[in-house]
Amino acid sequence: MSGLNETHDPALRSWVESANGATTDFPIQNLPFGVISPNGVEDDRIAVAIGDSVLDLRACFRAGLLDGLAGDKSHAVFEARTLNGLMAQQPDVWSALRLCLSRGLREGATQQARLSPHLLAMNDIALKLPSRIGDFTDFYCSIEHATNGGKMSRPDNPLMPNFTSLPVGYNGRASSIVVSEVGIVRPRGQFSKDGKIVFGPTEMLDFELEVGAFIGAGNPQFRAIPLSEAPEHFFGICLLNDWSSRDVQSWEYQPLGPFLSKGFATTISGWVITQEALAPFRVPARPRDKEHGEALEYLRDANNDARGGLGLRLEVRLHSENMRQNAQPPEVITATGFDSMFWTIPQMITHHSSNGCPMRPGDLLGSGTVSQYGEKAQGCLSEITWRGTNPIQLENGETRAYLLDGDEVVMTGYCTAPGARRIGLGVCSGRVLASLPK
Amino acid sequence: MSGLNETHDPALRSWVESANGATTDFPIQNLPFGVISPNGVEDDRIAVAIGDSVLDLRACFRAGLLDGLAGDKSHAVFEARTLNGLMAQQPDVWSALRLCLSRGLREGATQQARLSPHLLAMNDIALKLPSRIGDFTDFYCSIEHATNGGKMSRPDNPLMPNFTSLPVGYNGRASSIVVSEVGIVRPRGQFSKDGKIVFGPTEMLDFELEVGAFIGAGNPQFRAIPLSEAPEHFFGICLLNDWSSRDVQSWEYQPLGPFLSKGFATTISGWVITQEALAPFRVPARPRDKEHGEALEYLRDANNDARGGLGLRLEVRLHSENMRQNAQPPEVITATGFDSMFWTIPQMITHHSSNGCPMRPGDLLGSGTVSQYGEKAQGCLSEITWRGTNPIQLENGETRAYLLDGDEVVMTGYCTAPGARRIGLGVCSGRVLASLPK
């Protein structure tokens, strides 16, 4: 399923006119899955995005338009309130559904009249979390991010020796994951201030620009997923903001790692870009420097090296309260690329399961902060401002060391490749709200 | 609900004769909840343990014997396949159900004839995980354990400065939690051996003796649970074995904490001892040494100090393949107490939610390894054998630095107090199986 097929044809146009614009994230070559609810009604169902619209897949299933696409699992897939049922299927099911939707949504499709009653305007729905996320794991796969972070605390030895040997990761908090546009209340926590440990609203609130990867079919406990099979267990990606309170993190993280400095909220973009939609944008995995040697055998695979990377550009914009009041647009504060990640998504899946840890459909892996070298190419304020010592100068005269109340952080991402239609990841945004009274 | 009432009366006897024996873990004063399935049939339902039997609560509900006990939530509570529905209720519902069960199971109860058809022998059922565990958090609340662990890596400065300021914790892996008696396959992982990093079966497999605490009603995201309200969100406890591969842990844990060294399996005992059953065994929280100063305000509460501790004895037995073949009983290798924990369960709940992290009914908190000073009073082999340098001498002549294939680790626990009937926690056991072929 990883090769290109007719669904990738850049000449395809949709009868949903907004899908044909040059700047839409969701042309017919994308077809990302999500969970929606008609605004104001708690009645979640799965859907696919197309231009400025969404196609209600539960309604299509009930109308008999998706017959036979998931065999005896059809009810579990299309009547579900989350994407877990679809994610649990094999790639051939995902692929058949994508092909059916691509054919039905094309300009001139005979199904237009039967599908169009199930099309809703994006503005008329509420986007929900795409899956019931059993476990959320956050990795740390950018060597630039790891090196920058290390330099701040260990100038002589910034990169930990394990970084190039395994994809370092830790367990995140699943319950605090929210979808784009949910407001983020500034968390309280313990941190060091003026030589004392205090408890109060964090004074170093940061974002982390990441890519999230959803697990498809799981693995039984105690059975590892070899790297050659990892792509079959990888459903698709989203944008992810791993909100972080740096002052809390510094005080709490030893010896067991980050905990409450992260677990108050993680925002994801909501639409899941499938592995198949990403096929035209695959690039070779980042080559290892000579000094890093070869990866251990279980993390090595010629196919992964050749196609495990992803040509994905990512941007972060900041929209302050002041900008909003003056009708100024958000300002880009980071532009970076996912192709420079040291470890690939299949390597994360294989390493994660190498001890026999069971992955379940709908589980989420975060890539870790995406950073590159160069000006404003780092995925968090801590790196951009060097722990607040070198604040960002915004065009309207404001400065930022860390986030202020009212700041909205807007993440976007898109893939381009020669001969392919550009696709986007949608938006992952969240506005910082003042701490609640105690 | 925290005070003593008629359900605690040590003179109570049950018409279930096995519940009246001096050594049973499950006298009528206990009444722990669990999830069972008739052996060989996948049809999980909630139940309560009494002596060597279990009472099928779904069957009792269908027979009209539990009417009105959970109001309009009765169907969600008693028809559920897990305890999440019951855990989500307020303490008055838990208490009313306990009282009803206590009265119905007492010697001379008029309900005996109607309840007894729904009684199953413990040997005829399979015990399941008690709840759908949304998130699993593992704390690190024994100062002796933290000090011992620290001494091995930092002899001059064993205890991290944050230990006495907050309950250090990290997110665990929910998907790999299993119930007692599930075999534990020795995990593979990366570790340092003879100066090289290798990938293979762990050579330092350890157990960690912990107490698990289940969350009752949750809190909305961004709303903290004050310490005064934390007991209302605490449903009950179980035994927990946080299996650990120490060689993997040493190599992977910096800077984000333990990950695959833990996430292959965590075993819990299955029966959940309710907060109310534990009421007679509450003891004052461990007093803080003068040098530790006072806890910060949000972790301080006179009521918590007076009653936040728990007089719970814990034991670990080892049953080797050799012992089994020679019909020898398991040998006690650790006996320790939960009353020496530095932080209480309510403090863990309050700290965890202090950043606004939402807790959900059925979430699980681990206490961290329970250790005390003294011979064989530590909750893991790493401490008992001082990282393998001082192996345990077993009575049959075997020695153990770390666990061998075939070793069964059996954890038990019980509470006693003057004037109270002894109650037990059941058994948390798991046998180590050889690594699977690649």
Provide structural commentary.
The structure is a homodimer. Chain A has two domains: about 5-130, SH3 type barrels, CATH 2.30.30; about 135-435, Alpha-Beta Complex (Fumarylacetoacetate hydrolase, domain 2). In chain A, the strands form seven sheets. In chain A, strands 6, 7, 8, 13, 14, 16, 17 and 22 form an eight-stranded mixed β-sheet that branches. By secondary structure, chain A is α+β, with helices and mostly antiparallel strands. The termini of chain A are far apart. Chain A has helices at about 55-60, 75-80, 85, 90-105, 110-115, 145-155, 245-250, 275-280, 300-305, 320-325, 345-355, 380-385, and strands spanning about 35-40, 45-50, 55, 120, 125-130, 135-140, 170, 175-180, 185, 190-195, 195-200, 205, 210-215, 235-240, 245, 265-270, 275, 280-285, 310, 310-320, 330-335, 365, 390-395, 400, 410-415, 425-435. The interface between A and B is large, with 62 and 62 residues.
Helix/sheet category of chain A: alpha+beta
Radius of gyration of chain A: 21 Å
Helix percent band of chain A: 10-25%
Give a count of the beta strands of chain A, DSSP E runs of length 2 or more: 26
CATH architecture of the largest domain in chain A: Alpha-Beta Complex
The CATH topology of the largest domain in chain A turns out to be: Fumarylacetoacetate hydrolase, domain 2
